[in-house]
Backbone:
């Protein structure tokens, strides 16, 4: 069961990043050509993951099963 929950969390991260891919394009259009974007992408993915986890805790806390 625990492995399925972690896999679902990573799937949620990928889906939410997939929905926000337009943000990557617009963010990239304002950057310089030689700017390294790997770190920026990693920060965005990590923050998205943390906000997804936080939203899960808030949702379960509101339902009362936390």
Residues:
């Amino acid at each position: 069961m625990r492995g399925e929950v972690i896999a679902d969390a990573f799937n949620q991260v990928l889906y939410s990043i997939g929905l926000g891919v337009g943000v990557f394009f617009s963010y990239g259009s304002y950057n310089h050509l030689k700017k390294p974007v790997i770190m920026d992408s990693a920060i965005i993915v990590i923050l998205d993951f943390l906000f997804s986890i936080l939203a899960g805790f808030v949702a379960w806390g509101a339902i009362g099963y936390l």
About this structure: Residues 2-63 form one domain.
